[in-house]
């Protein structure tokens, strides 16, 4: 098992990553809770919820809220629906919310916990590889019709208990999605981890020791950055490598066409190409492309409009006055935020789309 402590301004919390630790949940909680509310979804709960519930103290009152899977759950309606269930379960300020699932459950249950009676404790129990990212750093949110994650807060969990046993049932597409963020973290802050990932033949969700190591290394890179910049003023932007074009592709292709990580992987290819051009560094682009190919990342893009993608990139949170700012790498482990002027961007996107249509 690996443990990483994350220091947030108000508190700090431990992220424990191990195999089978769902059977010992009570031991990882910072205190004894008498009223516990578990939020999960119908793809996850049948596999793992009973194990987690059974590992709580027998005297605790446990209420389960199991919802339909999918991003649509991060809605205002579901937010109030869960609050209603929490009042019904008579949770008081000393109660605990457990978020058992991937990013959707973590964001939703975390946001509910952050506002129920002005905030009660919550613990993340991630069941996806991608959730190594969303469960660390304290961002919780639901969606608004205007865009994703627009209603939210910074609200760190009191603990993260990450049982890699739960990854065995994760669909391959989701494994790819999660590893895209891991290789992103390697590129941003851990050259040795990047070498290890790139030299590996195939992603392997069955190799638990390797999973524990990979998740911990990714979490360490993220932790270092969020500790230095908890509220996203500067450094935290570096975690956005690959996301400026990635988010635009995700939205333009239609949510669900690519998973988040698959879109980020394509966005990273673009950002690394631009970086090599601008800084002349060797970012192992050939190796990265081959890693994506042998792990069956979807690299063929549908017919997307460069203008529409750029319009979306201009709305990115890093952009200022419609000027696109992207995270680029001066070298492996040396991210910077750079302004990319409109002509350069247009030319780069058009050329990239052309090449990605014919892969
Ligand atoms: P993330 O944002 O972390 O990728 P999501 O919450 O979007 O995660 O979950 C992706 C999908 O995978 C959802 O349909 C969810 O129900 C399903 N899922 C999550 N964890 C598991 C698991 N361990 N086993 C099987 N399916 C899972
Ligand atoms: Zn991401």
Summarize the structure in words.
The protein is of the alpha/beta class. The chain has two domains: 2-169, Rossmann fold (3-Layer(aba) Sandwich), CATH 3.40.50; 172-197 and 230-357, Up-down Bundle (Dehydroquinate synthase-like, alpha domain), CATH 1.20.1090. It contains 13 helices and eleven strands. The protein has helices at 25-28, 45-54, 76-88, 103-115, 131-134, 172-189, 191-198, 208-228, 243-253, 260-279, 285-294, 306-314, 342-357, and strands at residues 2-7, 12-18, 35-41, 61-67, 96-101, 121-126, 139-144, 147-154, 159-163, 324-331, 334-340. Strand 1 (2-7) and strand 2 form a beta hairpin. The model has no long low-confidence stretch (mean pLDDT 96). Bound molecules: adenosine-5'-diphosphate and zinc ion. Zinc ion (ZN) binds next to helix 10. Residues 133, 181, 243, 260, 264 line the site of zinc ion.
What's the quick description here?
The protein is an alpha/beta fold.
Question: How would you summarize the topology of this molecule?
Answer:
Layout (H helix, E strand, L loop, with lengths): L1 E6 L4 E7 L6 H4 L6 E7 L3 H10 L6 E7 L8 H13 L7 E6 L1 H13 L5 E6 L4 H4 L4 E6 L2 E8 L4 E5 L8 H18 L1 H8 L9 H21 L14 H11 L6 H20 L5 H10 L11 H9 L9 E8 L2 E7 L1 H16 L2
Parallel strand pairs: 2-9, 3-4, 3-5, 5-6, 6-9
Antiparallel strand pairs: 1-2, 7-8, 10-11
Helix pairs in contact: 3-4, 6-7, 6-8, 6-10, 9-10, 9-12, 10-11, 12-13
Bound molecules: adenosine-5'-diphosphate and zinc ion.
